[in-house]
Amino acid sequence: MKSPLRHVTGTAVLLAGLIGSGGGMAVASPAAPQAWAPTQAAAPQAPLPAAIPAPPQATQHPFGPNVYVFDPSMPVARIQATVDSIAAQQVDDEMGTKRYSLLFKPGTYGTPEQPLIVQVGYSTEVAGLGAAPTDVTINGHVDVYNRCLSADNCIALNNFWRSLSNLTINVTGLEGCRSSANFWAASQASPMRRINITGGNLSLMDYCTAGPQYASGGFIADSKTGAVINGSQQQYLVRNSSIGSWSNGVWNQVFSGVNGAPPQSFPNPPYTTLAATPISREKPYLTLDQAGQYNVFLPAVRQDSAGTTWENGPTEGRSIPLADFYVAKPGDSVQAINSQLARGKHLLLTPGVYDVDQSIEVKRAGTVVLGLGMATLTAVNGAVPLTVADVPGVDVAAVTIDAGEVESPALMRVGKARQGAGSGPANSAAHSDPANPTTLHDVFFRIGGPHVGKASVSLEVNSDNVLLDHIWAWRADHGNGVGWTTNTGANGVIVNGNNVTATGLFVEHYQQYNVIWNGEGGKTVFFQNELPYDAPNQAAWQHDGVLGWAGYKVADSVKTHELWGGGSYVYNNVDPSIHATRGFEVPVTPGVRLHSLLTVNLGAGTLDHVVNDTGAPVSTDAVGVPSYVADFG
Question: Average of pLDDT values for 151-155?
Fold first, then answer.
């Protein structure tokens, strides 16, 4: 049975005054935030008009048939036909197997008279190939719009799995409301990185359709914008960027190392603002140099940083020739991939779905694993699809990992599992480097959704000094193979290593603790969680005399841990009488400190406390109204 989609009820955010006549727009203050609650899936949206079939590839490249490399000498109409064709395929294909990467060589695309309009659907990457975002300019739009599941149910809540990076959008073209901003109405797993917005506003909400227009994002890093319209986005993280202004908050808007960010004011409005990001490294990205050679650029680590890496000069880091990579394609065996990794090659995964029947093993320090076009690894026969040894400087970026029908003990492991299968500190300091952390960027996990999936843990981090930069671990609440005993997953993320930092941690619907943090010295900047919707009854969802399971658990033995900007939401739609005792569970000790916490009821069930036994309950008496704890510990 197809389970319910996220849908929203409650009071709508009215962005009155935002939309000017024609192309003008002025940011005004929105009304009170809305409430969220999933209901039954509505009728499907009418299909897009048939697009002109995409022309064949014009330039040769080594990345396979689902990568399109555009040249500024190509006619705009030809590029438009290609991107329209791909959008028509992907805009409603939420759980499909097609993957696309749309890459733009350095230069300018579109004109004010003939703008280039790119609509980005599911499993689609749009990226520039320049050394800096200013090397590629699109005069036009790169947009994500609401999906209208029925005439009066237009939402962005399920707009997942797409990305935009490393280019300039000079906002121009389209008519009426659509001309008023570049729209990125996307939710989880839809990062925007190294983007330069000029000539107009960036709106994270699509206010041009029928209601309710809700969205549940999101992540922006290393980008520069003018005015940003948050609108209905219930939570968002902006990291190491520069913004002109920010319109409003809903529940949990977090800014870390952002020039132009609003000041700290949680909970009214719910802005959490850090002057600097404790540690950051930007995602590696593909470039094309003046000699026509492809390279992958690996940005340098930054400590206590703010602003972008590129506004005041070239991004620091190193360039790796594509010749140093094994360029994998779907159908390549794991044995072939591991053989190339063992010889010292880096790994580039071209778009597609890879069936993985034994672990892809990254054993050498400094290895880069980079996916294009939302490349996806699917576990076969209970395999752990990706493992990383206890070595420093590995970078895994833009990879989605799906559970398979046979339960996997984990979907990804960083560092060797210790005694107890992830129940204690890793103690791997001799094999890690705080100045050169192993890093995960835009790594997404799915248990169910495309198909039946089972995994005990999605991500297990055993190494010390690891950086998690935008993770979404998702036990599916809708799609294929969904049910309490069907897509089973106990824990989303378990951190056993010491001095692990997460910037953008989204973990949803797991059946026990969504996150367990066993290591010392952990830091999390932004956490978003939904507890599982589908527990059949209270007896099935409780432990040790505690009702339910917390979304974020710091082990009782931990002495030092800090979190900024965390939300846990409850929606027990199968049995609305269910209670969860708390959203966050931590030891009471001077070194464990949490800032800007909230819980929210989405329309069913009750969450009794925010953290431990502190914080008022959230219930259906006040759907969508958060319970806040500004500081704990």
Answer: 96
